Amino acid sequence: MSNKPKDESLDDFFDAFFNSLGVSGSNQGQNLPARNLSSDSDFASITSNDYEAVMVSDADQQKISELESIISSIQKREPDNSAIDINSTYKINYRLELNASQLKAVTTIKGPLLVIAGAGSGKTRIITYRTAYMLESGIAARDILLLTFTRKAAAEMTGRVQELLPDANSGSIFGGTFHAFSNYILRKHAAMLNLPPNFSIIDTEDSKDTIDLIKTELKLNSKETAFPKKARIQEIISSSRNRNMTIEEVIESDFTGLEEYIDEIKLIAAGYERYKKICNLMDYDDLMDVLRDSLKGNAMFRQKMQHDYKYIMVDEYQDTNVTQREIVYLLADHHKNVMVVGDDAQSIYSFRGANYENILRFPQQYPDCGIVKIEENYRSNQRILDFTNDIIHNARIGYKKKLYSSIKHENMPLVRKFYDQQTEAEYIVTEILNLRERGVELNQVAVLVRAFWHARFIEAELNRRNIPYVAVGGLAFIERRHVKDMISYLRLLQNPYDAVSWHRVLKLIPGVGSVTSRKIVEQINKPGGMDEIVAGNKKHADDLVSLFGALRSANRTNISVAAKVEIMRDYYSPVLKALESDYQIRLLDIAALIELAGRYDAIDKFLSDFALDPPSKRFANKNTPLIDEGEDKPMTISTIHSAKGLEWYAVFVPHVLDGLIPSSKAMSNLEELEEERRLFYVACSRAKEQLVLTMPSFVTTYNGFLSYPSRFLIEIDKSKFRFEV
Q1: Which of 98, 352, 409, 630 could be stapled to 102 by a disulfide with Cβ–Cβ 3.0 to 4.6 Å?
Q2: pLDDT at 26
Q3: Which residues pair with 650 in a beta bridge?
C-alpha cells in the first residue's frame, strides 16, 4: 500500500485560511517517540509477595473479626440430617426432582432460613419448588411474598409454579421487585399512611431531568466550568440514600474529582427533595424509604403487613441494600418465616448500594436460623470448578464452600499471555471461529470484561472479520461519543466538505449550537468563506483557529495515519476533558484508535475498514469466512456486572492484568479489593465447558504501566490451569 496522494482541496482550504491570518502550521503535530517495552516477568516465579499488600484499617479489621465470628458459629453447626417427611398425596415428587441439599431448603418452611446457593447450583429451582411445596402444604398463595431483583425472575418463578401445579392459585402470590412491591403497597394503603392517593412515580430519567431543572434554576449550568452533569448528580444523590451515606462521604469515596462541588450538589439535593414534595412526586429511592419508614413508625400499618405476608422469600439477598434489608426484617418480625437465598461470593453491586454484609449478618439477626449450603453445580465441568473454588477460597471474608459437579469433561482453564493487545484480540477471535467450526454456536460464546474499554481491540477485530456480536453493559466501541468525535475529525481530512462531520465537531466548541454550526457550514463552501467565518464569529474565533490548525497539521502527507490520529487526539483531549469527568478512561479508547491506525498507510482505507456502521457482509480478506448475520446468532461482549446470572459454553476474559482485574482504584481498600475478587469469580464461573483468560504483556493507562498478571490469578494453584505464552 502507498501513501494517499496529497488532498489538494483540503490543503488549499487550510492554506488559504492560515495565509489570511498570517499563521503557519508547519511546526504542529510532531510524532510521539517510540515506547520502550519492559521484559516479560516469568509467570511461574511470581508469588503473592510480589504484590503490594492492601492496608487494613483498625475499623476494617474489627469488622472482619466480627463477621468471621458470625460465620464461624454457623460453620460449626452440625448439619440438620433429620428425616424429611413429605405427604404422599403431594402431586410433585420432591425427592426425585431435587438433590438432598435442595430438598432441605425446599421443605424447611417454618422459621428463618439462610440458603447459601453457589453459582450454577439451581437457585431458581429451589425457590420455584419451595413455593410449590408451601402451596401443597396448605399455605394460601396470598400469604406468600417473593421479592426478586428483576420482574423477569419473579415472572419466571411464579410461571414455573403454575406449570408444576396447574390447579393452584399461584397468581395470588405477590412476586416482584422491591420497587414494585413498595409502589403497590404505598398506593394500596395511601390513606392509612397519610399519603396523597395520586402521587406520581418518576423514573431515573425523569429524576435526572428534574435535577437538571433545579441546577438551571440555581444558575449552576455555567459553561465556563465543567460542572457535573445531571446523570452524575443523580447517581451521587441516589448512592448516598441507598448506602446510608452523606453526599460528602459518597463524593470523597467514589467521586474525588468532584470534591469542589460538594456544597453545590448538596444544595441541588435539597432542592430536589423539596421539588418532589411540592409536586407530589416519588422517585425509586423514595418508594423504599417511605415503605421502610412507614413500617417503622406506623404500628397499625406494620401489623397489617405482617398479617398479610406470613411467608417471605428474598432472592439474591447478597444484592440488597440497607433499606431493603430493614424492610425484610420489619415484615418478617412477627412470624419470622423468612427465607433468604443468595451467594456472598457473587456480591458485586456495592456501587448500587448493595451490602454484602446483609447475607453474612443474617444469623446475627436470627441466631436460631437454619442454614443450608447448596454446593452441587449443574453448569460447569469439575476442572473449571476447581479453578473457581480456588479464587473464592482465598477471600478474606465469606462463607466457605466448595462446589462440585458430575460433569467430568477435561477442558482445563487456559491462561495465555501475548505481546500486545492486538495479538491478544486476534487470538481470541480466531479461537471463537475455531469453536464455531467445531459446532459451537456463536451465541454460546462470551467475552467478559471488567471495563468495556478492555474489549476495544477485540471489537475492532470482530468488525474486521465480520463476526456478529452484541455489546451488553456498555456501548459498542464504534458507538461511543468520543470515538465518533474522533472519526468525524478524521473524515474531514478525507473530505473537507463533509457537512455531517462539520456539524458534529463544531458543536463541541463551547457556545456553538445548531444555529451557529449551520451558519458556519453554509459558509465553508463559499469562496473566501474562512475569513467571513472568523469575522462573523468573533466570540469563537480562537476556538475555530485552533480546530482548523489541528486539521491542517494532521492533513500533511508526509506523516503516518497513526500520527494524524495523534494530532487530532492532542487537539481533542482538552475538549473531552471539559465535557466528561471520566475523560482519562475515554482517552484509552482513542489510544486504541492510534494503535489500530498504525496498521494502515492511507486514511481512506482506515476509515473504510473501521466502519462506523454495522459490519458489512463482504470478505475482509480471502482467508476470513463470511459469517451471515442471518445464519448465526451473535456472540456476546459483556461487562462482568451485566453477565451475572448468565452462562455460556465458552468464556474469554481478556486483560487479566493487575490494575485492571482488580481495578487499581480498589487497591487501597480491602473491602473494594475483595469485591474485585468476587467479580473475577463471577466472570470465571459463567463458563460451562471452556474458560480462557488472556493478557497482553503490558497495558499503559493513566494509572501507569501495567504488566503483572492479576494477583487473583497468582494465588490459584498452578495445577488448576494451563499457562501458555
Answers
A1: 98
A2: 42
A3: 445, 690
Burial of 295 (0-12, 13-18, 19+ CB in 10 A): buried
C-alpha closest to that of 536 among 547, 550, 552, 522: 522
Give the amino acid at 87.
N
DSSP state of 81: -
Contact 403, 119 (CB under 8 A): yes
Q: Cα separations (Å) of 548 from 5, 254, 517, 529, 559?
A: 21, 38, 15, 13, 18
How far apart CA 673 and CA 693 sit, in angstroms, is: 20
Helix axes 541-554, 481-494, angle to 10 degrees: 70
pLDDT tens, 135-166? 999 999 999 999 988 878 888 888 899 899 98
CA distance 551 to 537: 19
Mean pLDDT on 585-595: 82
What cell does 131 get?
413455593
In this structure, of 85-99, 267-281, 283-297, 431-445, the range with the lowest mean pLDDT score is 267-281
* Contact yes or no for 373/79 (Cβ under 8 A): no
Report the C-alpha dihedral over residues 312, 202, 321, 145, rounded to 10 degrees.
0
Are 417 and 725 in contact, with CB atoms under 8 Å apart? yes
Q: Hey, what amino acid is at 720?
A: K
In this structure, are residues 459 and 421 in contact, taking their beta carbons and an 8 Å threshold?
no
How far, in whole angstroms, is CA 262 from its chain's centroid?
Answer: 26
Name the average pLDDT for the chain.
82
Question: Edge-to-edge strand order for the sheet containing 469-472?
Answer: 469-472, 635-639, 445-449, 648-653, 687-696, 414-418, 722-724
Enter the pTM of the model.
Answer: 0.74
- Which alpha helices (DSSP H) does 137-229 contain, by range? 151-164, 178-188, 204-217
Contact 265/258 with Cβ under 8 angstroms?
yes
Q: Report how far residue 281's alpha carbon sits from residue 60's, in angstroms, rounded to the nearest whole number.
A: 39
- 645 burial type by CB count under 10 A (0-12 exposed, 13-18 middle, 19+ buried): middle
- Rounded to 10 degrees, the C-alpha dihedral 211/213/216/218 comes to -70
The 3-class SS string of 438-451 reads CCCCHHHEEEEECC
Radius of gyration of the chain from its Cα atoms, rounded to whole angstroms: 29
Could you tell me which residue, 19 or 639, shows the higher pLDDT?
Answer: 639
3-state secondary structure of 98: coil
State residue 317 phi and psi, 5-degree precision. -65, -25
Burial (CB count <10 Å: 0-12, 13-18, 19+), residue 483: buried
| 3-state secondary structure at position 314 | strand
Residue 110 Cα distances to 15, 134, 339, 489, angstroms = 84, 10, 9, 66
Nearest alpha-carbon partner for 54 in 672, 620, 689: 672
Residue 498 has a pLDDT of 67
Q: What are phi and psi of 514, to 5 degrees?
A: -65, -40
Name beta bridge partners: 237: none
Look up residue 87 and give its three cell numbers.
405427604
Q: 448475520: which residue's cell?
A: 629
